[in-house]
Amino acid sequence: MSRSPERIVKCPNCRGPALYGAGNPWRPFCSERCRTMDLGAWASERFRLPAEAPTDLGEVDAAGGATDPGPLRH
Predict the structure, then answer these.
(1) Which pLDDT score, from 0 to 100, does residue 58 have?
(2) How far, in Å, CA of 17 to CA of 41, rounded?
């Protein structure tokens, strides 16, 4: 089994140099602190994936896009 070579990358958190390889247990981060800060950001929902807008508000056109649903009825 071949080992991939170690290289220096930018830490996703602090943008400083980080060893990307078996010698760095926190890779791709430079330290345990940066890894923990990133985990905390995800846990507090500072990082979010965009949600898709619902398409059931109107009919779907031939290209797959929603058409104008017209006036809303209550």
Answers:
(1) 56
(2) 21
Please state the pTM of the whole predicted model. 0.56
Q: What are phi and psi of 41, to 5 degrees?
A: -65, -40
Structure tokens at 70: 């017209």
Q: Helix (H, G, I), strand (E, B), or coil: what is residue 3? A: coil
Can you name the residues that pair with 8 across neighbouring β-strands? 19
| CATH number of the domain located at residue range(s) 7-43 in this protein | 3.30.50.10
Per-domain residue ranges of the chain? 7-43
Residues in the chain: 74
Mean pLDDT by 10 residues, the chain (74 residues): 78 95 94 94 82 63 58 60
